[in-house]
Amino acid sequence: MIALRQDLPERRELCELVVSVARENKDLQTGGIAPEHKNDGSYVTIVDHNLQESLLSKLTERWPMYGAIGEEMDHAEQVRICESSEPGYWVIDPLDGTTNFTAGFLCFGVSVALVIEGQPVLAVIYDPVRKECFSAAAGNGAYLNNSLIRSDQCESRIEDCIANVDYKRLVGELAVSLVRSPPYRSQRNLGSSVLEWCWLAAGRVQLYLHGGQKLWDFAAGYLILVEAGGAATSLSGMPLDCASLRKRSVVAASNPQLLSQWSSWIDLNRFGSESPL
User: Are 234 and 251 in contact (CB under 8 A)?
Assistant: First the structure.
């Protein structure tokens, strides 16, 4: 992880900007907005577009030296910015958990990360329902609102843990093993990747597994988790860099010891599955 540099935007200022944009959009507080279908079959709403437009406008006005990638942008434009923006670029997920949002299931968030040299150095994720603002700056800790947070450092066995597992992107023997003989105490799935990272960082769950996340799903949450004391990798053991738009699988835990146990169990139970990302 890159050490915090003095010339970067200030974490508190970015928190204020993201929270302000979210609070200005009254529809974000309740959900239940009718969706449209994107080309990949996923949902998008007018709220996604409005939030992205506002965030792009305010971020680039305040810090014009950085490019900006939004989830709802054209893919070719995302690639261009990722490959050409110096000294770095913002990564924006205007509304993560859109399916939850459209159903009135109140679990969704707004995510912004600043990526420099392929690594996230600044992150803010805001939960508008619970009014929880998670943030982190590289080398300077992770916060929930104005308080420093640490991921759960107490649990020492995966048998005692709560795991957040996204089953729909897992295949083969690994998925079967998780259903038939899960190694953890209990399992959850929030349906919002950015909040799942935050809840892991806050110690509300201790293990995390996701079969495929895009850059805007993990850039901010990964930094928040690491700065809170947690650890993460991909199914193939590769680091979660942000230098490209390539989708990544995620294996994460609230501390490095648990990650080692979790990764070992997964490696022993994923034979016959497709190649990890």
Answer: yes
Looking up tokens 């799903």, which residue turns up? 217
Q: Write the pLDDT tens digit of every residue in 158-169.
A: 999 999 999 988
- Distance CA(101)–CA(25), nearest Å, equals 14
Angle at 94 between CA 13 and CA 26, to 5 degrees: 85
In the chain the domains, ranked by start, together with CATH numbers, are 11-149 (3.30.540.10), 158-269 (3.40.190.80)
SS3 233: strand
Strands (E), 97-205: 109-116, 119-127, 132-137, 142-144, 147-149, 162-166, 186-188
Residue stretches of the chain with pLDDT short of 50? 1-4, 272-275
pLDDT of residue 2: 47
Which CA distances in Å does 123 have to 1, 18, 202, 266?
Answer: 13, 10, 15, 29
Three-class SS of residue 22? helix
Q: What is the pLDDT of residues 192-210, one digit of tens each?
A: 999 999 999 999 999 999 9
